[in-house]
Amino acid sequence: NAGVTQTPKFQVLKTGQSMTLQCAQDMNHEYMSWYRQDPGMGLRLIHYSVGAGITDQGEVPNGYNVSRSTTEDFPLRLLSAAPSQTSVYFCASSNYRVSSYNSPLHFGNGTRLTVT
Amino acid sequence: AQTVTQSQPEMSVQEAETVTLSCTYDTSESDYYLFWYKQPPSRQMILVIRQEAYKQQNATENRFSVNFQKAAKSFSLKISDSQLGDAAMYFCAYRSATGNQFYFGTGTSLTVIP
């Protein structure tokens, strides 16, 4: 059971370049999300989804796009990378049934992104 | 939006001793879910323990236990018999009653001194 698979592990971009961070989960979780982790700021929610075809913004959505065409996949797109987007990115998933709200987030291993 | 506060950026503990990490949160909801995660240098996020707000009994997982004070909106993590492998960043997290958002604190970096 792979859990949450996130790729790549490391990425260096130049300002203005675009890229997609991939995230896939095999636990049939309805809920998927993207976080960025910056020193001293904890994890901040970028976007989330509660099912295929449904996405919503989190705390820091600007500069990022997401889509959810299948239950398994939730890619994060950086449209025009900026140095302020240098961070560690985590994809995470969870159950999303009322009876399962005590379910934790299951995390991928993170992507360290550097924008120069 | 709910806020989660971890007021101790850094903590240290002697090996085999006990340490308590603090977490407070602000919410108007009566039902919610609380979690502690551990992030070792490998960057992996590992669930340590969870607590449902409607349960009065404090959760326990081996050497890890919580002190959940609902009225005070406090959710501290106690690590007993600390081990070198406990050294990590610890995050407190809150899941709303609607289930669609998790809120994280800024983390506490725990050092275990041999």
Care to give the gist of this entry?
Chain A has 116 residues and is mostly beta strands.
Characterise this structure.
- The complex is a heterodimer of chains A (116) and B (114).
- Chain A has 116 residues and is mostly beta strands.
- Helix content of chain A is 0%, strand content 50%.
- Chain A is built from no helices and eleven strands.
- With 114 residues, chain B is mostly beta strands.
- In chain B, the strands form three sheets. In chain B, strands 2, 5, 6, 10, 11 and 12 form a six-stranded mixed β-sheet that branches. In chain B, strands 3-9-8-7 form a four-stranded antiparallel β-sheet, with no helix packed on it. A two-stranded antiparallel sheet of chain B has the order 1-4.
- In chain B, a hairpin with a 6-residue loop joins strand 5 (33-39) and strand 6 (46-52).
- Chain B is globular.
- The N and C termini of chain B lie far apart (40 Å).
- The relative contact order of chain B is 0.34.
- The model of chain B has no long low-confidence stretch (mean pLDDT 94).
Question: How is the topology of this model organized?
Answer:
The complex is a heterodimer of chains A (116) and B (114).
Chain A: E1 4-7, E2 10-13, E3 19-25, E4 31-38, E5 42-51, E6 54-57, E7 64-66, E8 76-78, E9 87-94, E10 106-107, E11 111-115
Parallel strand pairs in A: 2-11
Antiparallel strand pairs in A: 1-3, 3-8, 4-5, 4-9, 5-6, 7-8, 9-10, 9-11
Chain B: E1 3-5, E2 10-14, E3 19-21, E4 24-26, E5 33-39, E6 46-52, E7 60-61, E8 64-69, E9 74-79, E10 88-95, E11 102-104, E12 108-113
